[in-house]
Amino acid sequence: MISPLCARQIAAQTAGQARRVAIETVPETGSTNADLLARAAQRDFDAPLLLAAESQHAGRGRAGRTWHSAPGSSLTFSLAWPFRRSLPQLVGLPLAVGVAVAETLNALGVAARLKWPNDVLLEGEKLAGILVEIAPPGEDRVTAVIGIGINLALPPELRSRIDRPAAALPSLQADRNALLAALLNALAEACVEFEAGGVAAFAARWNALHAWRGERVAVLDGARTLHQGMAAGIDDSGRLLLDTDAGRVAVLSGDVSLRRAEA
Ligand SMILES: O=C(O)CCCC[C@@H]1SC[C@@H]2NC(=O)N[C@@H]21
């Protein structure tokens, strides 16, 4: 039996948090990221706010992609967090979020690993995606909307819409409120730590979770290959380090592929 998302249950399991987070759940929406960005633009809240949806019909992914999910078989939520940091200082936030998600899953016995910059993989297949979007900056703070989608089951109609190998976590489907509470605790801690220390504070933990460390990978911009080399982890700015034939390069953006790397 799949439990419905319930704000009260999630709040009860996150009550010990130093930073209070308001929690809302809705049966359906287009995109929890879009909803929180719109509300942030209207100054609808000024403290951390979590919005979780049973179902999204216009889920957004990175690089303009669509995030497909199915009611009850995915966990889809966004956390809006106001940071007292400048916009450029938030560049590495998605990596810190990836660490928080993967460590939470590891603590629940799931061997999740990270693909740069912030896909969460299980045995090489995508289990969860992270999309961080920034609301129009206020006077003294910048609000990041941290959107996370986790596959808990992959019914055939969902699998047929996803164009890449995907994984799911049926063992965690039964109590999505407990999973969401554990994630929220870890994310709130990560946001506080990120505000103090930036992405450098997460580099060693990210590297310990790196799925493709030591593997030959290609970094792509659409169909174009930008670099090829051995993935060596991230540096203190969150850049992917690649050992190429021409020496070490630090990559700022792109999609990483194992399949497209030439031997
Ligand atoms: O891997 C990606 O491309 C990122 C996917 C992020 C999906 C989540 S689901 C909750 C939140 N709302 C959205 O519209 N997108 C994010």
TrEMBL record:
InterPro entries: aa-tRNA-synth_II/BPL/LPL (IPR045864), Biotin_CoA_COase_ligase (IPR004408), BPL_C (IPR003142), BPL_LPL_catalytic (IPR004143), Transcriptional_repressor_C (IPR008988)
GO molecular function, one term: biotin--[biotin carboxyl-carrier protein] ligase activity
Sequence ranges assigned to domain BPL/LPL catalytic in this UniProt record: 16-195
EC number: 6.3.4.15
Catalytic class of the enzyme: ligase
GO terms under cellular component: cytoplasm
Transmembrane segments: none
Keyword Ligase found: yes
Keyword ATP-binding found: yes
CDD domains: BPL (cd16442)
Pfam families, per the entry: BPL_C, BPL_LplA_LipB
Keywords from the named record: ATP-binding, Biotin, Ligase, Nucleotide-binding
Catalytic activity: biotin + L-lysyl-[protein] + ATP = N(6)-biotinyl-L-lysyl-[protein] + AMP + diphosphate + H(+)
Alphabetical list of NCBIfam families matching this protein: birA_ligase (TIGR00121)
PANTHER family: BIOTIN PROTEIN LIGASE, BIOTIN--PROTEIN LIGASE
Protein name listed in UniProt: biotin--[biotin carboxyl-carrier protein] ligase
